[in-house]
Amino acid sequence: MIRGAYEQLRNAGVFTGFGDEWIRVGGVKYAADGSASERTMRMSTPYVGTDDHGILTMTQQEIHDRVEDAHRNNWQVGIHANGDVTIDMVLQAYERVLKQWPHPDRRHRIEHCSLVNPGLLQRIKSAGVFPTPFWTYIYYHGEKWSQYGDEKMRWMFAHRSFLDYGITVPGASDYGPGPFEPLMAIQSMVTRRDYRGREWGPNQKVTLDEALRIATINGAYASFEEKSKGSIIAGKYADFVMLEKDPHDVDPNAIKDIRVVRTAVGGTMAHSVA
Asked: How far is CA 253 from CA 35, 153, 181, in A?
């Protein structure tokens, strides 16, 4: 949400969750550093073969000010922060407001949260913050990861680590810099292989069932929609797909090629192939 729109809504008494099942206000988003795919995110160590650490687009004080304003006006905040330096800055702001103005379930987010470490993971867990790492990037942007190096890739798009720390991690594509395709995302998270077959950060692999949960109920939870979406149970919207093959029965490197044969939205068939 652009800042002017946020301020107008805030001044009108609107906040996160306002609306109904047809149209509902989500969070307010800011961007604090560069890009993972364009290799401009702000890191504590440089890109391979350079002295370039990436860029910041907000100062620490700007992050504090924006987070405090939104938090105190009952908004969920999502801040674009890819590099470990920027993630630390965002966490400082979240930790500050949650200490001074406690809220049991605000679900502030770190959009992308690409490069983490054990200290950041523990702070994310302790603060109840939601990371939303890219889920198709390992596969789709494979030619770019050599500029980060193998050690950084052990801590990038760290779905395995988030799960191991007990963090409810959803998937995210940031479409259009990366494709949305959920089956490509599931394959990418399970295999950690790019489109050329090279493996990046294999320690961050998740199981197929874990990937399915990341793609469904975890995503719903990050947007306060877990009571209506994310799983197929009585009382929730009947949104689901039928696949040509069971992902458990195919080569993990071919998951993205499984055809979607039917799509239901709210229990009504919206797509079908012969």
From this structure: 27, 20, 15
For 172, the token pair is 């995210």
Q: Rg of the Cα trace of the chain?
A: 19
79 and 109 Cβ atoms separated by less than 8 Å: yes
Q: What is the mean pLDDT of the chain?
A: 96
Whether residue 40 contacts residue 71, with contact meaning beta carbons closer than 8 Å, is answered with no
CA angle in degrees (0–180, nearest 5) for 123-126-131: 65
Report if residue 263 sits inside a domain: no
Does the pLDDT value for residue 2 go beyond 80? no
Per the structure block, which two tokens stand in for 72? 């105190």
- Chain segment 9-19, per-residue pLDDT in tens: 999 999 999 99
Q: Which has the closest alpha carbon to 27: 108, 103, 91, 99? A: 108
Q: Burial of 184 by CB count in 10 Å (0-12 exposed, 13-18 middle, 19+ buried)?
A: buried
The structure tokens listed for 82 are: 């890819």
CATH of the domain at 171: 3.20.20.140
Q: Specify the number of domains making up the chain.
A: 1
Residue span of the structural domain in which 8 resides: 3-235
Sheet holding 77-81, edge to edge: 28-31, 77-81, 109-112, 130-132
Indicate whether this model's pTM tops 0.85: yes
